[in-house]
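PROTEIN ENTRY
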Amino acid sequence: MSIAFFFLFTTCILFAQNTTNDIKFQNLETPSSPGFILLDNAPSSIERPTTPQGFGVSVLGFFQGTGGAMEFVPFWLATHPKLTAEKMYKNKFPILYNFSISAATVKSDSSNYVAGGFRTRLFQTYGTNNIGKLDAIKSELENALADLDLEKIKKLQTDYSNLISKPIFTIDLAAAIGAGSVTNSFSDLELNRWAAWMSFNYRPKGNDFYITALTRYINNEKFEEYTITADLLDVGTRLNYDINKFCISLEYLQRFDFTSKNYSDYRLAAIGSYQISENFFITSTFGKNFTDVNNIIAMAGVNFGFSRTKIKAYE
């Protein structure tokens, strides 16, 4: 009898420890590819911060099949048994965790375009208040483990994961280069534009409302109706609000052409994103795009990804 009790008790402890030490990230949305953004063909031109995952696929205009993209984060394609969620949120310079490489293709009425790009996070901070909350949850998890309170452990896991996905302030860097061909032939590809940009995200109260600001430089060689060899500057902001599995956003971008004194244009769009499952999202966008003609945005797309989403909460 005592042997059976000891075996049952030991099994419960091991199960509780494994449960406690596994943190599962819930909102793994693949952001718009930098290539889509470069070609002014993305559901959002200002990307809100997301949790990185190993491999992601995006499809634009899934009713018409106008474009597709693949993105992967090398770091998350491998296992990291010594990495913990605590180490992640205490790392203010998570460049490696967030570094991704992507490729995209877009088809227009007159040309086919391909683009490649990368993105990463240069800086993040959770603020003193949220760090205190995370440390408090860690202590509660340890107590729940001691009490074998598995229901409480599960709730604390979710709280821990949600809080880690909401840093107070972040700085992201991205860049992309694109080429086009009117014959859909690889040998006829010509460089059309390249760009680099930084985005700054701020959660005033650390909750579901957050603001994303962006500044982007674009070197335009030969793209659509823009001035050949033009230097463009985008400056804008995006307001975001998460409601459970739904996110609504409003973005505004002002574009300046330093080559043409008479040119100044803007993009204004309303964006809705819905999480169908853990790694599957659908996004719709309506608004006005850059340029004076063919500038109505009425776009829908899907993105999904694959990742090792569980890591230890702490050592």
